[in-house]
Amino acid sequence: MSTPVRFAIAASLLLAALPGQAEEAKSPADAELEARITAMARMASATGPQYSPDGQWIAFHTNISGVSQVWLLPADGGYPRAVSAGPDAASGVRWSPDGRLAYAVSPGGGYNARLLLTSTKGTNTIAMDDDGEANTFLGDFADDGRYHFRSNVRNPSTTDAWIWDPKTGKATMAFEIDGFGGIADLQGEHALEWELVTRGNLNAYRRNLTTGERILLTPHEGNAELFGQFGPDTSTVYLGNNLGRDKMVFSRLDISADGKASAPVTLAERDDAQLEDFLLADDASFALLVWNVAGRNEIERISLPDGKRSPLPAAPAELVYGADLAPDDKHAVLSLAGSTTPADLWQLDLASGEYTRLTWSPHPGVDLDTLVKPELRTYKSFDGLELSGWLYLPKDFKAPGPVVLSFHGGPEGQEVPAFRSDYQALLASGIAVFAPNIRGSSGFGKAFMALDNQAGRFDANKDIQATADWLVREAIGAKDRLGIMGGSYGGYATMVGVTEFPDTFAAAVNLFGMVNFETFFAQSEPWMAAISTNEYGDPKTQPQLLRDLSPINKLDRVTTPLLVMHGANDTNVPVVEAEQIVEVLGKRGVEVEYVLFPDEGHGWRKEPNRVRSTLEMTRFLREHLAKGSKD
User: Fold this and answer.
1) Rg (CA), the chain
2) 43-53, pLDDT tens digit by residue?
3) N or C end: fewer C-beta atoms under 10 angstroms in the chain?
């Protein structure tokens, strides 16, 4: 018997019941589980902290109201208050030198951001830039009050550097970029410019804004990632980079009076980790380094210029989501999070090493002590390559049992032990989760990250089956009770799983994933398409490769029940990617459910949609993995 396509459009009101159970009387256990899942999806967080110029206040983002907004908190602790409000998420808050706050709002969740500048009371708000449908990307302030950002208003395939000047109250193009790039730092007449050669390969320049002259700071062969900022003046640049090496390190380079840049000198490196971020004191007397250790973060202090390193006490959670140094350089504020800890703000006393909690994001209805922490596991893929992933096991899990493989986006992303309401919802339902970092993931060196480029993606796709085989071989997952899910590129991996390995998975959930590289390149943002050819293939010269990599051409193999969820305003992965799947599988009589969120872009920013997505996903996977049969 064929199964019709089930369509659902996300409403502004929360569901009163789990989808599929609306007309059935729920047992007390089901009702309790539903309430718990809903509560986890509603949990708030606090991220993106930054000290005010006088050090008295901390600006940050929290979604306590249901959608991320700008809030203020006294630096010495106290009751927070909201600065911004509205139906759309605010992001990227930054303090101007005169004590105002800049942030972005993207209507509908796309890239058409409005850059706003407001008082600490949220009044006298002005637009620094609003180019309608143009893609605008956040930046930061220089010490003199200028604000730099990026926009593709001139050419949809590129992003140029723009500067808003407080003296005129207007934004003007600072310089054109032949590709994807912008300004990383701005001091006087010099800009630290970065340019993307292609995904995973960048260059840095020092540009004179008056003459247009620029100096290449990072000549290299092969791929290189980097980020950085000027030192106390523009003759020094501090860099996080993997130039000429596999893992990210902390370096410094100097620029002579005649405009010649020295080779970067490595100041800090680790064999067991790579640099993820650094915070530089205003006088460049020291820096805080944030290391990525197989997905967890560790922090240390390095004295400059002597390079003396001092590890700091372990943070109260596994991950650092953002940090800032106080103007007096005696404290740092950090957004810390973990697998059982939603992101909150903590202040670190750099002299004593003591952490003081500043925010308590609410989690009514959720006992954090009942949440599950994962275990890092390693295993071998089909060709002997070592892979790793995070294994979440429900309490009282009877192995082998139902396990969902969850694939991260990117594909250059990294699975880390972060709080995930969807994972915890599955765990509360008795379903285990294994979240792997297959080849192509970041955090393990650039050689590993490049293994999935273009034709290498065939091997990355084989990692999916190898991961499922390992779970069964280790008697963790029952062979007929494996699910697969993922968002963005993880959605692509999900569709690969059900097309290339149609007998492996009993259920699948595709969240805003790619399925057809031909339509992705044609309808995604032009700049996104331009930078993605090295990653996936060039549609002009490698059309057959892209066809072979596209699950759309193999949907005739699909027998796995599928849930598809997508945002109508998604510009990274256009909604046509979801529509193609639903149409083709619906005609074939394969069970497919479709949830379209009309007020979202690439991912869910609004609380009702987060709740709806978590409920739909959990209900769907429970239905199909409970008994463990595709028959």
Assistant:
1) 24
2) 999 999 999 99
3) N
Q: What is the largest CA-CA distance in the chain?
A: 79
Buried-exposed string 556-584: b where 16+ CB fall within 10 A, e elsewhere = eebebbbbbbbbbbbbbbbbbbbbbbbeb
Q: Which two tokens stand for residue 241?
A: 């980079």
The Cα 49–Cα 66 span in angstroms is: 19
Helix (H) or strand (E) holding 579: helix 576-588
E-assigned strands of 57-200? Answer: 57-62, 69-74, 81-82, 90-95, 101-105, 114-118, 126-129, 136-141, 147-151, 160-165, 170-175, 180-187, 190-198
The helix/strand/coil state of 143 is coil
The number of C-alpha atoms within 13 Å of 20 and in the hemisphere containing its C-beta is 16
Nearest to 184, CA basis, from 144, 138, 221, 145: 138
In this prediction, residues 255-262 reach a mean pLDDT of 95
Q: In Å, how far are 32, 380, 480, 504 from 466, measured between CA atoms?
A: 36, 8, 16, 11
Angle, helices 421-428 vs 607-625, to 10°: value is 40
Residue from 511, 506, 486, 468 nearest 407 by CA: 486
Strands 375-380 and 401-407: unpaired
Distances (CA, A) of 175 to 149, 158, 198, 527: 11, 12, 20, 17
Helix (H, G, I), strand (E, B) or coil at 156: coil
Distance CA 76, CA 82 (A): 17
pLDDT single digits (tens) 347-400: 999 999 999 999 999 999 999 999 999 999 999 999 999 999 999 999 999 999
- List, edge to edge, every strand of the sheet that includes 46-51: 46-51, 57-62, 69-74, 81-82
Q: Are 440 and 449 in contact (CB under 8 A)?
A: yes
Distance CA 317, CA 314 (A): 8
pLDDT at 36 over 90: no
Written as six digits, the tokens of 144 are 């003199």
The H helix count followed by the E strand count for the chain is: 11, 37
- The burial of 617, by beta-carbon neighbours within 10 Å (0-12 exposed, 13-18 middle, 19 or more buried), is given as buried
Tell which residue, 256, 252, 255, has the closest CA to residue 269.
252
CB-based contacts of 566: which residues, under 8 Å, 6+ apart? 511, 512, 573, 575, 577, 578, 594, 595, 596, 597
Residue located via tokens 């002597």: 306
Predicted confidence at residue 18, as pLDDT, reads 36
Residue 74 pairs with which residues in a beta bridge?
A: 57
Provide DSSP, 289-316. EEEEETTEEEEEEEETTT--EEEPPPPS
Query: In the chain, what percentage of residues exceed pLDDT 90?
Result: 85
Instruction: At 192, list the tokens.
Output: 């630290």
- The whole-number pLDDT of residue 25 equals 56
How far is Cα 497 from Cα 351, in angstroms, rounded to an integer? 51
In which residue are the tokens 């047992």 written? 27
- What's the chain's length in residues? 631
